[in-house]
Amino acid sequence: FFFFFFASFHLPTAMSFKKVVKNKAYFKRFQVKYRRRREGKTDYYARRRLIFQEKKKYNTPKYRLVVRRTNRDVIAQVVYSRMNGDYVMASAYGHDLKDFGVKAGFTNYASCYCTGLLLARRLLTSLNLADQYKGKAEIDGKDYTVDDEDVEGPQPFRCFLDVGLAPTTTGSRVFAVMKGAVDGGLSVPHNNKRFPGYDKESKKLDIDTHRKYIFGQHVADYMHELADGTEDSEGEKIEAQPEKYQAHFSQYIKAGLTHEDVEDMYTKAHAAIRANPQRKAKEAKTVESKRYGRKPMSLQQRKDRVRQKKEAFLRQMEAAEAEE
Prior knowledge:
two-stranded antiparallel sheet, four-stranded mixed β-sheet, 8 strands, alpha+beta, disordered N terminus, 12 helices
């Protein structure tokens, strides 16, 4: 009895039925995704809606304001799509701001705004619309759209914001580029819910906070806090952190900028961009060509070299025979 109980206790249980999902039929019907989807570079769900145009528009392209941000640069382009690829009409980069007086901080909110403003002025200048659509002259952070202006002639240039895979959170720098482009005279459909200073509860935009970000005052306040120390809203003293200030703002220090110079720097940059947004021509470099190898010989020189070698060989043979 004990043996029977022990044997029955260790009897193997029956295997449950398990359906094979990835069978031959699955792999025969498998469709590989687009390369840029596999690389995680393109959101085709969004791209499809941004480039599709109605047929009744007669091949009129749908323009996109493409904004991409890297660790060291900001890329802003106005692009339209064709069957054989995308075409760039105008572009502006964060490092272009060096020609307009911005000495450091090429990826912060204020520099992103300047990049969008530069792109708008470059595009409208190339289309001969810069005089008709000058954009918002006084930069104060308020809402503005060029569609409200009554201008005779061509309609405002309309494009749609393309943020790619960037998270569209409140205060994101991709919206700074868009705001700069809108203030520069482009028509980009948007609202103010993602600008810094928007209150979700009251559903209103704090214009002073938005202007503060456009002119880089949030950067200046942080510089002042680290360099000199300040007091918080409750009156408690915040100690200065000189080592952290040296590490975070080394390029500002190298350029001789303090927290008092930031707003003035961006104010001058806005004026310089509106005065002449075109790229400055690069100076031609005079480079002396250095040649370390032997200069190629002509046919006559090669023949003469062979003749000299033959004569030298014959002289050696004659000398050897004379010694014998």
